[in-house]
Design goal:
The chain has 10 helices and 15 strands. It has helices spanning about 1-10, 15-30, 60-65, 90-95, 145-150, 155-175, 195-205, 205-210, 255-265, 305-320; strands spanning about 35-40, 45-50, 100-105, 110-120, 120-130, 135-140, 180-185, 185-190, 215-220, 225-230, 240-245, 250, 275-280, 285-290, 300. It has an 8-stranded mixed beta sheet. A 5-stranded mixed beta sheet has the order 9-10-13-11-12, sandwiched between helices. A hairpin with a 2-residue loop joins strand 7 and strand 8 (about 185-190). Helix 9 runs parallel beside helix 10 (about 305-320). The protein is elongated, with a radius of gyration of 20 Å. It starts with a helix and ends with a helix. The structure holds adenosine-5'-diphosphate and magnesium ion (MG). Magnesium ion binds near residues 25, 86 and 91. This is DNA mismatch repair protein MutL.
Length: about 325
């Protein structure tokens, strides 16, 4: 069990940003409207995620740290209609196996909850504690017991870059959630959680960019797409400012990204790229998110239709500009 968790940790917990991703996704799944993330030393010293979500029940608390103990899937059939971000139940055990993790959580506003401490996969403490409704998880000294993994970490700046990039994508995916990100005491991201995507774009890319975005919107029987693309003048040297969000999940889709480029490059030089945020809603059964443990890669069952829609939508938004 313990070794299995360390092995799984290699898959799930590649670097500090993977911990941030898994913890924040859990907070989102718990219905939080406010999520605060504090990191120190690129996340290698501390990653702390505090949310105001549902909290974890007493009996479920230790369970959450065992492998495949997810509360989110009840039957095999559920796997095909995944709405929550997590579903494999392997994130917490994997993280706890390679760090010193502490959870303080409460499911109501009574002021009383519990605290669970796990070190290197072993329960170090489990007791009643004062707690606000929601969950507060601290992950300290990541990879302290896996020196080989620690050796592969890049500079603090690089690790922080991955963390902030992920936080940017998550805030773009959830304009209705108020996020903050602080590193060594500096605030790197702060969104209001008022549901205004344009406001989040301005927070992430700067207010100048926020003012240069064109809205896009399109709907078919299978897909509902809306979002923003930057005006042609605002083109960039790389594609890193393209975010594709499927049913609230930030994903990597080569197919959709390619469709965006195809649309864009019919009007602009092929070495220039837009800022794009696309929210695509579809029946969950049309998308397979269980391709890789990171859940970043997806496959679509009606891909050609989606591709055509996205390409047309981009051309249309830009075309109206050029004319
Ligand atoms: P998964 O998200 O795949 O279910 P995890 O290992 O990430 O698995 O989490 C295990 C379980 O712990 C979750 O199913 C959930 O019940 C509980 N949990 C984890 N984080 C939170 C949180 N922030 N708020 C409420 N419950 C949580
Ligand atoms: Mg999870």
């Amino acid at each position: 069990e313990h070794i299995a968790n360390q092995i799984a940790a290699g898959e799930v917990v590649e670097r500090p940003a993977s911990v941030v991703k898994e913890l924040v996704e859990n907070s989102i799944d718990a219905g939080s409207s406010r999520i605060d993330v504090i990191v120190e030393e690129g996340g290698l010293q501390l990653i702390r995620v505090t949310d105001n979500g549902a909290g974890i029940e007493g009996e479920d608390c230790e369970m959450a740290f065992f492998r495949h103990a997810t509360s989110k899937i009840n039957s095999g059939k559920d796997l095909f209609s995944i709405r929550t971000l997590g579903f494999r139940g392997e994130a917490l055990p994997s993280i706890a196996a390679v760090s010193k993790t502490e959870v303080i959580t409460a499911t109501d506003g009574s002021g009383l909850g519990r605290k669970l401490a796990v070190e290197g996969g072993h329960v170090a403490a489990h007791e009643e504690a004062a707690a606000r409704k929601g969950t507060d998880i601290s992950v300290k000294e990541l990879f302290y017991n896996t020196p080989a993994r620690l050796k592969y970490m890049k500079t603090i700046q690089t690790e922080l870059g991955h963390i902030s990039d992920y936080m940017y994508r998550l805030s773009l995916a959830h304009p209705d959630i108020a996020f903050t990100l602080k590193h060594n005491g500096n605030t790197l991201l702060q969104t209001l959680g008022k549901g205004d995507l344009l406001q989040v774009i301005a927070g992430v890319y700067g207010s100048a960019v926020g003012k240069q975005m064109l809205p896009v919107e399109e709907e078919s029987l299978d897909y509902k797409i809306n979002g923003y693309i930057s005006r042609p003048e605002l083109n960039r040297a790389n594609r890193s400012a393209i975010s594709i969000i499927i049913n609230g999940r930030y994903v990597r889709s080569f197919a959709v990204q390619h469709a965006i480029m195809n649309g864009y490059h019919t009007l602009l030089p092929i070495n220039r790229f837009p800022v794009v945020i696309l929210h695509i809603e579809m029946d969950p059964s049309l998308v397979d998110v269980n391709v890789h443990p990171s859940k970043l890669e997806v496959r679509f069952s009606k891909e050609p239709e989606l591709i055509r829609m996205v390409e047309d939508l981009i051309k249309q938004a830009l075309g109206q500009q050029v004319l």
